[in-house]
UniProtKB/TrEMBL annotation:
Chief place where the protein resides: cytoplasm
UniProt subcellular location: Cytoplasm
A molecular function GO annotation: 4 iron, 4 sulfur cluster binding
Protein family per UniProt: Belongs to the anaerobic coproporphyrinogen-III oxidase family. HemW subfamily.
InterPro entries named among the record's database cross-references: Aldolase_TIM (IPR013785), Coproporphyrinogen-III_oxidase (IPR034505), Elp3/MiaA/NifB-like_rSAM (IPR006638), HemW-like (IPR004559), rSAM (IPR007197), rSAM_sf (IPR058240)
Protein name as annotated: Heme chaperone HemW
Family matches, as PANTHER family: COPROPORPHYRINIGEN III OXIDASE (PTHR13932), RADICAL S-ADENOSYL METHIONINE DOMAIN-CONTAINING PROTEIN 1, MITOCHONDRIAL (PTHR13932:SF5)
UniProt-listed CDD domains: Radical_SAM
Source organism of the structure: Arthrobacter cupressi
GO BP terms: porphyrin-containing compound biosynthetic process
GO CC annotations, alphabetized: cytoplasm
Purpose: Probably acts as a heme chaperone, transferring heme to an unknown acceptor. Binds one molecule of heme per monomer, possibly covalently. Binds 1 [4Fe-4S] cluster. The cluster is coordinated with 3 cysteines and an exchangeable S-adenosyl-L-methionine.
Amino acid sequence: MPSALPLGDPAPADGLLPPQVLDGVEHRTFGLYVHIPFCAVRCGYCDFNTYTAKELGGGASQDAYAGTAVAEVDFAARAMEASGLPARKISTVFFGGGTPTLLPAEDLARILAAAVGHWGLESGAEVTTEANPDSVTPESLKLLADAGFTRVSFGMQSAVPHVLKVLDRTHSPERVPQAVQWARDAGLDVSLDLIYGTPGESMNDWRTSLETALSYAPDHISAYALIVEEGTKLAAQMRRGEVPGIDDDDHAAKYELADELISAAGLSWYEVSNWSRTPGHACRHNLAYWRGDDWWGVGPGSHSHMGGVRWWNVKHPTAYANRLAAGESPAAGRETLDAGTREVERIMLEARLGSGLEVDALDAVGRHAVAGLIADGLVEPAPAFKGRLVLTLKGRLLADAVVRRLLPE
């Protein structure tokens, strides 16, 4: 089942934002996230806010969804203007899910067109959609490219059939190179998402997945350790002893192999779980999250952030559609982050970036910890001496522990 929404303060029905969102707005980019909450099958490890396409009716149905998302785009434009935010063009757009490409490409193009109609796109803007390899065709990818999409992120996850079966993935490994080539033919940049640490996945299985993914010459690779969330099918299988549990040492060894092979193929890490062929191929939308920029999240359960104000939409697609049909904000709650919380989050996120964390921006506790982190082999000495804290490979494996040492107790 999808995870629960956080607790927070009530969100106003008119969507107006407090004056603090205007502070420093000229220094922040503006992005749009669009959540498509439909999947053909719910994967056993997934706790995202997704629903199989046939589960819902009325305004939340797959057929009606594009119109509902456009209604929130329209609502967002009105609320931002009424809140006094200056006109800003969109720097990045990311369609996630779920499986966005379960919707017709025309629907995704319609949602993007509505956003561009309100705000416009910056020159060279990044526009991404996630996709399953079996949910695209040459024609759909060409239509997306023509509509302004620049990038597609395929959920490959593994190249090994028995691993895909444990994950409940619906595509066959043979479909991935086809989808990648179709995306290339359409002029789209290609990212591949991989998951390691699936129960029953051997080191040789993981090597096969990495080498296979790299043979397709992607522009970007994300490699995430499998996290088993409570309430998922996979968590229940583990409790019953039907599949083995998670092994942290196995995760670490597989991360090290990923970094070795991906780096040897010419891609460089820029965030702990992400590698790109060039700096220009890094996912700018995710970088905006990690750097605390502004984004509006469209869709049920989507989260938004502007100037230290964070809010999240109601989760169920029917409730979401009903609120927008009534002209009300779909937000379920929001919170205003204080300076201390924002600083903790900044350190947590920026420490994971290949560009590093500015040492002078740390407080006395953090600055005092740097020498010990160098001595323990967790941060690179040369950048640290120049004022940037950049994780070593060992540091990336222990990123959470590094952050704890940088923060006051």
